[in-house]
Write a structure and sequence with these properties.
The chain is an alpha/beta fold. It is built from eleven helices and eleven strands.
Length: 322
């Protein structure tokens, strides 16, 4: 293998730049030419592909977002779009890809290999931490710390006014951020999509004994089964009009910002591991870190298998909420 390319796809996450940097420098270390594809699969279709050098990734390890940009591509979902992408890769002599992204990105890379034989290794970049085959995904730790900082600030206002705050964090299909933030932020309760709520959750949470507490912080994953923070807060208001809960939706601030040291190191390990996996002839696999050891998981498993939320941590929420 003489030439590879790296691209980012799907939602951005802090640490993607650290991973790009690691891929580029690992390729150069192994005497491989490396290209950057801007705007993911869309840029692949449009031929937005440029050579990358050591200096191309200087001073980016501390930056959030992705210098290669990212975009969703409807055209790539079609055979004609993938054919255009392949021709552009062929034009540059690119034999292997490192895809930094999530489920959708890995699905696209898998399709490209099935149709044209392009080898690809994925690096899991998503703040949701929902990809199977790794203990942590790039950006998760930073997102948790960003949300935790916001909750610490909200706590000051909640305590000053003796109020209940519902704080909504990202996690449409997974509650990993909500669970970690809830425990670290001392929340009274955590609502996640994976766990069904008790039908009397309002009464349990706002019983007379619990209401003796001066204030409450309740963390909600955006994909929670009964609805987001706004809906849950409205249900409480209808049941107990005197409580008058407030809602804060953290939204996209969780995606941005300087990546934590944990995410920079994680992304660097994954970037180097991805390049070396390609050089060993691996393909259609995602790199991961499991029990602090680098692993490879087939794309099919990373895409389809569900990563379970920790029941021990859910139990911890209940124990600490007394």
């Amino acid at each position: 293998m003489k030439k590879i390319a790296v691209f980012t796809s799907g939602g951005d996450s802090p640490g993607m730049n650290a991973c790009i940097r690691a891929v580029v420098r690992a390729a150069i270390y192994h005497k491989i030419e490396v290209y950057g594809i801007r705007r993911g699969f869309e840029g692949m279709i449009e031929g937005d592909i440029e050579p990358m050098l050591t200096q191309s990734v200087a001073n980016i390890i501390q930056r959030g977002g992705t210098i290669l940009k990212t975009a969703r591509s409807k055209e790539f979902m079609t055979p004609a779009g993938r054919k255009k992408a392949y021709k552009n890769l062929q034009k540059h002599g690119i034999e292997g890809l490192v895809c930094i992204g999530g489920n959708g990105s890995f699905t696209g890379a898998l399709k490209l290999h099935e149709e044209y034989g392009i080898r690809c290794i994925g690096a899991p970049g998503t703040i949701d931490n929902d990809l199977y085959g790794t203990d942590f995904t790039i950006g998760f730790d930073t997102a948790v710390n960003t949300a935790l900082d916001a909750i610490d600030r909200i706590r000051d206002t909640a305590e000053s006014h003796n109020r209940t705050f519902f704080v909504e964090v990202m996690g449409r299909d997974a509650g990993f951020i909500a669970l970690q933030v809830g425990i670290a932020g001392g929340a009274e309760a955590v609502f996640v999509p994976e766990v069904e709520n008790h039908k009397d959750w309002i009464e349990q949470l706002f019983s007379k004994r619990k209401r003796k507490k001066s204030f409450s912080i309740i963390v909600v994953a955006e994909g929670e089964e009964e609805g987001g923070a706004m809906i849950l807060a409205q249900k409480v208001k209808e049941k107990y009009p005197e409580i008058d809960p407030r809602v804060t939706i953290l939204g996209h601030i969780q995606r941005g910002g300087t990546p934590s040291s944990f995410d920079r190191i994680l992304a660097s390990r994954m970037g180097v591991a991805a390049v070396e996996a390609l050089l060993k002839g691996e393909t259609n696999k995602a790199v991961g870190i499991v029990n602090n050891q680098e692993t490879l998981t087939p794309f099919e498993d990373a895409i389809s298998l569900k990563k379970d939320i920790s029941q021990n941590l859910m139990r911890l929420v209940k124990i600490l909420n007394v």
